[in-house]
User: What shape does this take?
Amino acid sequence: MSFRSLGLKEPILRGVLAAGYETPTDIQAHAIPKILAGLELIGLGQTGSGKTAAFGLPMLDRLCGGEPGLRGLIVVPTRELCVQVAENLRVYASQAGLHVCTAFGGVDMSIQESAFKRGCDVVVACPGRLIDHLERRNLSLEKVQMVVLDEADRMLDMGFMPQIRRIFVRLPQERQNLLFSATMPEEVEGLVKDFL
Assistant: This one.
């Protein structure tokens, strides 16, 4: 099994090479073809199982060569994860001409706003700061085609569900939803029923 055999486009495969990956992990081998086919899915995997590439690679692949603009949204629970996911995605996107921006608290909003203005295909965001940017009209979600909720179980633990709902009502009806989590508590199942 190789990344090429999963059906990824050449610029994304060059990004995989730049990241130093050789063979897909289990979750990548299972998730990538399904996401490329446009299916919605729930990916369960522990930290270190390769979840970021499992959703990041097919998201970038599907956006590659399309109209520029914000078309991919990844919502994460913490600033650290936001930075980490964005750094990984920037490596994967390095040969594809796609731009990845972040939105998290603790830094000046104007820095993030400037990055959005320069152009951005994917935003990796924490819920609170994303809502701040949406309310200030720094960002619009109207062209978003793919949404990932990463670490959904931690989002619940941290009390982010009301914010997640506020974000989801601003998204287009026609979109691909992906949910990744280490565990599947009942509340996550409730979220799935609402959104997926």
